[in-house]
Design brief:
The complex is a heterodimer of chains A (294) and B (258). Chain A has 294 residues and is mostly helical. Helix content of chain A is 72%, strand content 0%. Chain A contains 11 helices and no strands. Chain B is 36% helix and 26% strand. Classes of the chains: A mainly alpha (294), B alpha/beta (258).
Chain lengths: 294, 258
């Protein structure tokens, strides 16, 4: 015979265990947050000194090795152009790949192999992407250093991220909606462009933003493809350009305080640009989402 | 508008699995035909063959013939997309498009299918919502999201969406199974009203519902697990529910099995 259960007060040992585990969870959280906050704090504190109008509107042209002043206008411009071009290349390709994987390729051999290679691409170190573009585009085809070469390298890094996130979002769209659309006599391509993609838009935009944030700070592939310059080069297709990560890298290794200050300010600018882009993307998805009218 | 459907010797497969076998029946225009039978007997599968939605599932295929007023739906020169424009469908779970407002949901079929002017759309949306008995409840909030409506309203919205493209036949796959009795009643009233203009086919697990709304009833059954579903008998609803020819039908209706 088993005894019927008795209602007892909460045992001390269980209370203790609860406290300990709770403490551990809090500790883990704190440890995870410490580097995050300290990085932000450090960048803001050190970057604040040179983060001014001159910094944002001037290049480093004719700034001597020990001079104060100068700025990162050429680097901001370069980063925007390179990341913009990389987005223009990788988002359409990545999105169409995801559409193929989800809507057309189900279980086919081609889609399985695409899936496999996308996974492999996710693991490519950024410097390898840079080396590939350097070897293929810059040296073999002889196009020389340019912002566009950098954009090519960045798009190689962006593409797998875009494919994966878009694929996940498209899979989340309930099949009911596709069937509802088919049942209205809407062709498949229109179902995809007018029903499936708008439904998944918010998630896709978030994924693209994460991909952009990931590549905006890449230094190694740019070093090999964009090279470095102190002057403004508005044309991303010819001649070396600058980028903010390159700027930080370049300034930080110069042996005087004014340059290091500029490096910090450059890092701060980069973080602000990524945050701003994120904000814009949020606004776009908020504006597009029907929930706001509720 | 309403059209007759003639099915002869229809088989449907999922891959190598035969889901329904040898179905032959005639569905009369301007009437409600109910499909009843135990779960897994192929009612929904058969319903989906009537507007070529069955083949949307990978590996699914159909053998046999379905004539919609002399036109073979499975003819080699027939565009399945145009079949679905003619034979509309309402699903078990209400599925309004979440990114669209109430108005846009009803207008979706029109807009996605081609050229309609703004004023035409306006008129069709209004008349469809009125036909679906939903107009009075939503006329003041047409640009609110369709997903914000209650379940029963959403289902009527889906019916409005389906009839907005002016189909000849309306297929309903257990349209009330997710709804409360009041919403169910609203939909049933709507079905009785719609049958003046459309050929309506409804799959239902609710025997009373079949008896209430339908003119003809078809009973489906399957011989055993893994066997294909078959049409046992089809007759006037009053006859099926009072004096069926087959023993299996009587057993099912009286609740002795299934």
């Amino acid at each position: 015979m088993t005894m019927s259960p008795v209602i007892t007060p909460l045992a001390f040992s269980r209370r203790l265990k609860n406290r300990i585990v709770q403490g551990l969870v809090w500790l883990a959280f704190a440890i995870a947050v410490v580097p995050l906050v300290s990085v932000l704090w450090l960048v803001v504190k050190n970057g604040y000194a040179r983060f001014d109008a001159e910094f944002l509107t001037h290049s480093m042209r004719n700034i001597g090795a020990r001079d104060a002043g100068g700025g990162a206008y050429h680097a901001v411009l370069g980063t925007l152009e390179q990341v913009g071009l990389a987005t223009l290349i990788s988002v359409p390709i990545g999105l169409l790949t995801a559409v193929y994987l989800v809507e057309y390729g189900q279980g086919r051999r081609l889609s399985r192999s695409i899936s496999f290679f996308v996974d492999v691409m996710t693991g490519i170190p950024s410097v390898v992407a840079g080396l590939f573009v350097l070897a293929f585009w810059v040296l073999v085809l002889g196009f020389g250093y340019s912002g566009f070469a950098g954009a090519l390298a960045l798009s190689i890094l962006m593409m797998p991220t875009v494919v994966r996130s878009a694929e996940e979002m498209l899979r989340l769209v309930p099949n009911d909606l596709r069937e509802a659309s088919y049942a209205l006599g809407v062709p498949k391509w229109k179902t995809i462009t007018r029903i499936v993609l708008p439904t998944a838009l918010t998630g896709i935009v978030t994924g693209v933003m994460l991909a952009i944030a990931r590549v905006a700070g890449e230094t190694a592939p740019l070093l090999l493809t964009v090279f470095i310059t102190d002057s403004i080069n508005t044309d991303p297709f010819t001649g070396p350009q600058m980028g903010l990560p390159l700027y930080v890298f370049d300034q930080a290794q110069r042996p005087n305080v004014t340059a290091v200050d500029r490096a910090w300010a450059g890092a701060l600018t980069l973080i602000l640009i990524v945050m701003l882009l994120n904000l814009v993307a949020r606004l776009i998805t908020w504006w597009r989402s029907p929930a706001k009218g509720r | 508008m309403a059209k007759q459907i003639e099915v002869s010797d229809l088989d449907a497969y999922y891959g190598s699995h035969k889901a329904i076998e040898g179905i032959t029946m005639t569905i009369e225009p301007r009437s409600v035909t109910a499909f009843i039978g135990p779960s897994g007997c192929g009612k929904s599968t058969f319903l989906r063959t009537l507007n070529r939605m069955h083949e949307v599932i990978p590996g699914a295929r159909v053998e046999g013939k379905i004539l919609l007023e002399d036109q073979d739906l499975y003819g080699s020169d027939i565009d399945p997309v145009s079949v679905r424009r003619t034979v509309g469908m309402v699903f078990q779970r209400p599925n309004p498009f979440p990114t669209m407002s109430i108005f846009d949901n009803v207008a979706a079929g029109l807009r996605l299918n081609g050229r309609v002017t703004k004023s035409e759309t306006q008129g069709i949306v209004e008349s469809s919502l009125k036909d679906a008995n939903l107009w009075n409840e939503v006329k003041d909030r047409l640009n609110k999201p369709g997903a914000g409506l209650s379940g029963g309203q959403q289902q009527r919205l889906c019916i409005a969406r389906a009839i907005a493209v002016n189909p000849s036949v309306l297929l309903m796959d257990e349209p009330c199974s997710a709804l409360d009795p009041i919403s169910t009643l609203a939909i049933e009233d709507l079905i009785s009203k719609l049958k003046n203009d459309y050929t309506i086919v409804i799959v239902t697990h609710n025997m009373q519902q079949a008896a209430r709304v339908s003119d003809r009833t078809a009973f489906f059954n399957l011989a055993g697990q893994g066997q294909p579903g078959k049409l046992v008998e089809m007759d006037d609803t009053s006859k099926i529910f009072t004096n069926p020819t087959q023993k299996a039908t009587e057993d099912y209706i009286t609740g002795r099995f299934g």
